Amino acid sequence: MSRSEELFERARAVLPGGVNSPVRAFRAVGGTPFFVARAAGAQLTDVDGRTYLDYVGSWGPLILGHAHPAVLDAIRAAVERGWSYGTPCEPEVELAEHVRRRMPAVEMLRCVSSGTEATMAAVRLARAATRRDAILKFEGCYHGHGDSFLVKAGSGVATLGLPDSPGVPAVLAGLTVTLPFNDTPAVDALFRRQGDTLAAVIVEPYVGNSGFIAPAPEFHTTLRALCDRHGALLIFDEVMTGFRVAAGGAQERLHVRPDLTTLGKIIGGGMPVGAYGGRADLMRLVAPEGPVYQAGTLSGNPVAMAAGLATLRETERPGFYETLERRTARLVAGIANAARRHGIAVTAGHAGSMWGMYFARGPIRNFAEAKAADTGAFARWHRAALARGVFLAPSAFEAGFVSGAHTDADIDFTITQLDAALGEARAR
Ligand code: HOZ
Fold first, then answer.
1. pLDDT at 37 over 90
2. How many angstroms is it from 393 CA to the middle of ligand 1?
3. Closest atom, ligand 1, to C-alpha of 24
4. What is the mean pLDDT of residues 39-46?
5. Catalytic site residues?
6. DSSP letters of 25-84?
7. pTM of the predicted model as reported, rounded to 2 decimal places
8. Given this model, what pLDDT does residue 428 score?
9. pLDDT grade, residue 340 (50/70/90)?
10. Ligand 1 binding pocket mutation candidate from 23, 24, 237 (most atoms within 8 A of CB)
11. CA-based angle 323:412:269, to the nearest 5?
12. Domain architecture of the chain: domains with CATH
């Protein structure tokens, strides 16, 4: 029995499913999750001494790779000054200023401790500002595990094939309207029917929780126009895409200005940070300036702020995003070419360094099409890739991430291994 297997057995006695977050349990791909002993750059090393080239990157935050020296220095320096104050500190201001400079739509920011908190608070704010209750979300989008969002959700809910979660009051779920992503006519029809009852539309601008799905060119501009016409707010959930798909996030890449933006992952550099922000007139409704209540003991934690700031600053080096995008494009093209050679139908795509691959002829425009892809083939490919030292997200319904630590040689190695893994996945 390997050390990971031993640990997993112990874990299952004390943690539901042996994990603290469902997708990690490897249920969709089979096998035992490996337990990580340490990580550096683009590599994870498990407790059995095996190393993996990592395309999960802690599910998105680690755009610089693991234990980046600049972030490590910032964390060390911050920890030495004390690690939780429960009072204001300068890095909170610096982080908000940094975000506003790179995402001008985020005129004011409130930091929280996770993406889930950010989306929950953003929707509460939208409801308060519009005095309306209903929200529109899209099938297969995942906005954390808040009650309002566990309706046709992606990520772990999709991975495990779960129904909408028990425990969510029907009256609350009933306030969440869902439509297929990219279905502009359906959104148009919904707004015509009940646009004036919608507090907000919340959307992952590039979907990363049903695999990777890119938006149709007119999709977000239509959402923006319909929200404006009907007095609903547009919330871009940029927890995954923020500072990932471009220096200014998806809103910069797509040229769409949302009313509110939710952030997480990269802004914490791998520490537990989320944030929501947007139009100053809306954010001034948040307590203590306004009546919309939201608070947190660890919000704006000095160590987390330091990690986030150091990460964001590193991404401002000239050519950073261009290099990442070029390497990701090469990876995705390499996989697609290999699949073609093997006679396997795949659809692969990326935006910046966020990418995904489906075992399907494509195109994949929405959750229904993503679910119709061959998840059995994905599981076999995942296992074969892992055996060859490449760690992909253990679910067909998650995006992958390339970091600044992945070199051109890493990408070449990965293409070779994933090519062979495709052959093995087909043979089995
Ligand atoms: N829901 C997360 C990714 N979309 C998974 C988080 C985790 O397992 O760490």
1. yes
2. 9
3. 8
4. 98
5. 142, 237, 265
6. G-TTT-SPPPPEEEEEBTEEEETTS-EEEESSGGGTT-TT-BT-HHHHHHHHHHHHT-S-
7. 0.97
8. 60
9. very high
10. 23
11. 45
12. 3-63+318-427 (3.90.1150.10), 69-314 (3.40.640.10)
- For 135-192, the pLDDT digits (tens) are 999 999 999 999 999 888 888 888 777 767 788 888 888 999 999 999 999 999 999 9
Q: Which two tokens stand for residue 10?
A: 């112990």
Distance between CA 249 and CA 243 in Å, rounded? Answer: 5
Residue 11 corresponds to which tokens in the numbers above? Answer: 């874990």
Quickly tell me which residue has 């892992």 as its tokens. 386
Find out whether 397 and 211 touch, Cβ atoms under 8 Å: yes
Atom of ligand 1 nearest to the CA of 240: 4
Dihedral sign (CA 103, 108, 110, 111): positive
Quick one: which atom of ligand 1 is closest to the CA of 398?
Answer: 4
Tracing tokens 């929707």 back to the chain, one arrives at 123
Mutate to test the pocket of ligand 1, among 21, 56, 204, 212 (most ligand atoms within 8 A of CB): 21
Neighbouring C-alpha atoms within 13 Å toward the C-beta of 326 = 7
How far apart (Å, rounded) are the C-alpha atoms in residues 115 and 135? 18
